């Protein structure tokens, strides 16, 4: 990002507090969710298997330390996502995740002796054999004690990793996210697991927010402009305001359908089907709808509200199916007098110093 772009964005005088003081109800993300950072691997050469294949009872993976394939009990190995992977909306194809990470929970470790508890090892003979082999082959393990080099999940990480969660990756100014509904994945540093509790916005709407220009810009702005010496990425996520509810169901349905379309589009890219133009327009609609979800009065004031235009669209029609209707949405958006597209084009003149810099913050 150029210095001019940063300066222009940082001039926007808008913070989390501005949302929390509005007449609409917003609450910090941490009030409705458990949030954990990803794993900082202590000895990845030993405890990350690459390549790796998950099976129901036993998992097979290549140990770089032993230079051979090993078989371990599947409950101690999770598919491991890293920040370099493309995960926006759909997440990776499960079959393409080649890394597995060997994980332990705090309750399985004796803190005094820094060793793995015997009852746990007794129920994991393959793991026990592996640890004995790597200890013999690794002087660091011998010198520091095996407990000091394990990837150990704390209680909160254990809880979040084993439940449905949003996985969020921070890549510079960009944020990419998907909903890990089946609780399949462990995640690396610079990634975050977010398990939303209770009756809040639907998962697809939260996915839309996390992938939106609004979230990326506001999170980045609040991290960079904080007066705190160490206002981290984690805190910028933890404190991010989310709508307690939305009375505008048209926006909610439209966001869910756009997420469905983007997930469909990502799968077509994996099949080498070009969908770049379609994806770009879906992103534009998503960004505008998220703006309205957070700032409805402002968009009304600027005559940029999309609610009425969406209400009559294919996007919110009954019986919508992304695989069947996505191109109908595209043709509707591209039609000559489409008001949604027209209002997007008016952002630079009607909100040149506020929404337009946010809208253009990401290159996509």
How does this model look, in words?
It is a single chain. By secondary structure, the protein is α+β, with helices and mostly antiparallel strands. It is 43% helix and 18% strand. The protein has 18 helices and 17 strands. The chain has helices at residues 3-10, 16-20, 44-47, 118-122, 125-137, 139-144, 155-161, 203-210, 213-225, 233-238, 249-270, 276-294, 296-301, 307-311, 322-334, 339-345, 347-350, 355-359, and strands at residues 26-28, 33-37, 48-49, 52-53, 58-63, 68-73, 77-81, 100-102, 104-105, 109-110, 115-116, 152-153, 165-171, 174-180, 186-187, 191-196, 241-243. It has a 4-stranded antiparallel beta sheet with strand order 2-16-13-14, sandwiched between helices. The protein has a 4-stranded mixed beta sheet with strand order 3-8-7-15. The chain has a 3-stranded antiparallel beta sheet with strand order 4-5-6. Helix 8 (203-210) crosses helix 11 (249-270) and helix 11 packs antiparallel against helix 12 (276-294). The two termini are 13 Å apart.
